[in-house]
Amino acid sequence: MTTDVERLDFPGSDGQTLSGRLHLPAVSPIACAVFAHCFTCSKDSRAARYVAAALAEKGIATLRFDFAGLGESEGEFDSTTIAHDANDIVAAAGALQTLYPVPVLLVRHSLGGAATLAAAGRISGVAGVATIGAPFEAEHGEQISSMRKALVVFHSPQDNVVGIDNARLIYEAARHPKSFVSLDGADHLLGRRSDARYVAEVLAAWAGRYLPTQPAEEIPEDSPEGEVIVEGKTSSFLQRIQARHLTFAADEPVDKGGSDLGPNPYELLLAGLGACTSMTLKMYAGRKEWPLEAVRVTLRHNHVHAKDCEDCDKDTGMIDVIEKKLELEGDLTEEQRERLLAISARCPVHRTLLSEIKIRSELA
């Protein structure tokens, strides 16, 4: 299921404008979620982006936002009390519920996790609460006990910022249903992409137990082989791509204004060339019965000045240059390696890119 990302600004508890990004599923949401980021981080942290995207893939509209005084939000950041953060979470949930009157999930990462637990009792329709690397605040033990919401606690035994004992105290204070997930090997900020993805996938699966059954996604008819359909809203760079029965995404990195949920267009172009190259070498080596075991193709695209390109026909303007490096595994002779290098330039996509190309555009 391809998702979309929209900007959502809303009034905070003190009237200031808080800035958020709303990840929307391709179907009507079965629930919505508020992701409250780590202490002094922003809505654009890796954990916030990946968890929000994964929940949207599961049919949950997810809002990640900057607390007052942080990121793009107005106001003053208050690091002395969790009450201010709890008020912002309540405001974020209210903004979501105005758009989508469905059950709510609350997700809080890192320091101040008690703010989410404190806010849960003030928000109607909360189906569950998740904390990630959150500290335990003794004065809120009673709030955790009386919350009476499904709770999942994520924590790393190696967390050097908020010790693992905090997870035990939160878990013991809560009533069932409650769950604990160990993030063994992860750091406090989920700096590794694999750790952020793991949390996102487990959280989405856990949430499904406490949410209405999602309607089956309508499966589009297969497009003809050789035809690709690309669809996207104007609110973001995210694109849904369909090739035959397969669907995947294209996007831009965060620093280019995207949500980083898929490769960018040039990366897709390079991927097509690299895949075609590898397939061609596999077929050729197979027919020759050469011991080629694996192929790794590394590609890079650059714009260079024509005057700096010694083997280019043009001498003015800019030239597109694609560099392609092959790594061939197997007990191959030097002659065989050189032959495979030459064959790599004969893959169909390689030849297409070097031939005269006409692109005809029309309105459907």
Task: State the gist of this model.
Helices cover 30% and strands 25% of the residues. It has helices at 46-57, 83-99, 113-120, 141-146, 165-173, 193-207, 265-288, 334-344, 348-354; strands at 4-11, 17-24, 31-36, 60-65, 104-109, 126-132, 150-155, 178-182, 228-231, 239-243, 246-250, 294-305, 318-329.
Describe the structure.
- With about 375 residues, the protein is α/β, with parallel strands linked by helices.
- It has two domains: about 210 residues, Alpha/Beta hydrolase fold, catalytic domain (Rossmann fold, 3-Layer(aba) Sandwich); about 90 residues, GMP Synthetase, Chain A, domain 3, CATH 3.30.300.
- Helix content is about 30%, strand content about 25%.
- The strands form three sheets. The protein has an eight-stranded mixed sheet with strand order 1-2-4-3-5-6-7-8, with helices on both faces. A three-stranded antiparallel sheet has the order 9-10-11, with no helix packed on it.
- α1 packs parallel to α6 and α2 packs across α3.
